[in-house]
Amino acid sequence: MRDWSEGYVQGIDYIHAFYRDLSPALIGFALLLNGYRPPAELTGRFHYAELGAGHAGSSALFAAAHPAARFDAVDFNPAHIAGAARVAEEAGLANLGLSEDSFAELAARDGVINEVMYDFVALHGVWSWISAENRSILLDILRRRLKPGGVLFLSYNALPGTLAYMPLRQILMEHTGAAPGPLPRRIEDAVTFAGRAAAIRTGHLAQTDGVIDRIESIKRKTPNYIAHEYLNRDWTAFYAGDVARGLAAAKLSYAGPATPLDGIDDLNLSPEGLSLLQEAPSAEYRETLRDILMNRAFRRDLFVKGAERLNPRERRVLLGAARFALLVPPDDLPETIGAPVGRVDLPQDLYGPIGQALAEAPRSLDELLALPGLDRQGFDAVVRALMVLTSLALAAPVPGPNGYEARRASTDRFNRMVLERNRTGDELRHLASPLLGSGVALSRLECLFLLARRERFDPAVFAWEQLSAEGLALSRDGRRLATAEENIAELRGRDEAFARRRLPVLAALGIA
After folding, report:
1. Angle between helices 57-65 and 404-421 (to 10 degrees)
2. Is residue 40 very low, low, confident or very high in pLDDT (cuts 50, 70, 90)?
3. DSSP assignment, residue 238?
4. At a CB cut-off of 8 Å and minimum separation 6, what does 39 contact?
């Protein structure tokens, strides 16, 4: 009997995760920026598929935030789909379809999932973790099931930036494969061994920029994450141009970066690099050259299937009508950010008024441009600021108001499920916003504080009851707090800060 895993890691589940990059609203904004019409009205009945969805954390949250739309999540790991089905049942997600299928089974099956055409398809990381045979099957699925005008979100390990980490990945593969014992222990031993190899200060691990930092980063990850990120039999990195040429077989063409910040060239390349980029004779070569000049290791791209190009006037009108909300208190907006070209100042006469305006209420780009102080900045400057803020999860695009009450009812059910789960664990910590059509990350303590308010309990006492039942305690100034009184006092201070800083933002987003 053929191994159902096809070389993919089994016996250890992938992490529970939500990926905001897959948000229909963010994808739609990125398409507008790149001059393409989004494939569907985001308050309507669009159809979205996430292939290789893991626990379907993203699809489940999006389904809650878009009850009029349909979401299908496919993963061949039965443990992932079983857990996702329980989430869907507890949250009442009638618009989430779950399929325990390999890509070959999905392509061959004549079930419901193969009777629909998709406006959106998301493949997050999957392209790099599967065999050439499965990539060919995915191309066939995309060719047959992505609607004309539909969009593919595709993220993958990119060359040349990934080259530096391939020897590290080989150590992890060889060490875990040869050692006895449970896989989590073997993974921990392999990471420790890689650290020891780097510490001798000779050879590739020590002499290649970024590898030691990568090892230190991996040490903070769970074995579940490391297993699925590094230990699959098929693990491939690609040049961007090769990916684009391959997807052409499914009638797909490159439509630009999914992360708006990646499209601001002067933040990613020096003037000399920009000059070289202009000499690339084709779009495919230009993206490969961009990655070489940046030494990029991971890409998030959008591809369209015959999507409609917007003329400049249409693009201006649609961008002007696009609405945005702030995700942090306005005084949390940074004055500088890190970019590939180094530290970059964010002009406070631009970002300050935008932050203050969005803190009051969601606003369209045209409404922002009409405000005193911003009216002199100009269209391009305000658009650029919104590209930066949305890419850094400081702001987010907002779908239209139609259907808000239905979205609010659906997200309330989903969020109740997530908060209840936090009584006993922290696997789910993203809550759904009916305003954003997307999710917001909270810490477990914030989830417990929010749940306590819904139940009308004292937040500090309630949080301590949940944590102490698991043998957990807080620390302050590097010292573990020993008594209940100390822990409750610390929790009370943290809850006061939560109520002052975070709760108003969550309320504005329709979460609290």
Report:
1. 140
2. confident
3. B
4. 31, 46, 119, 120, 147, 149, 150, 151, 304, 307
Total count of residues recorded for the chain: 512
Task: Provide DSSP, 165-202.
Answer: GHHHHHHHHHHHHHS-S-HHHHHHHHHHHHHHHHHT--
**pLDDT tens digit string along 213-229?**
999 998 998 888 888 78
Task: Say how far apart CA 423 and CA 417 lie, in whole Å.
Answer: 10
Angstrom distance (rounded) from CA 45 to CA 313: 27
What distance in Å separates the CA atoms of residue 67 and residue 63, rounded to the nearest whole number?
6
Q: Mean pLDDT across the chain, nearest whole number?
A: 93
CB 240 within 8 A of CB 158: yes
Start-to-end CA distance of the chain, whole Å, equals 51
Phi, psi for residue 47 in degrees, rounded to 5: -125, 130
Task: Average the pLDDT over 193-204 and give the result.
Answer: 88
Tokens of 141: 């699925």
| Residue pointed to by tokens 């803190």 | 359
Helix (H) or strand (E) holding 370: none
Distance CA 120, CA 351 (A): 32
With tokens 């699959």, the residue in question is 232
* 471 has a pLDDT exceeding 60: yes
Q: What is the CA radius of gyration of the chain?
A: 23
Q: What's the rounded Cα separation, in Å, for the pair 83 and 72?
A: 15
Q: What is the pLDDT of residues 142-175, one digit of tens each?
A: 999 999 999 999 999 999 999 998 999 999 989 8
Tokens of 421: 């789960």
Please give the sequence-ordered ranges of beta strands (E in DSSP) within 208-297, or none if there are none.
Answer: 253-257
The backbone torsions φ and ψ at residue 6, rounded to the nearest 5 degrees and listed phi first, read 55, 35
Q: Which amino acid is at 323?
A: R
Look up residue 160 and give its DSSP letter: T
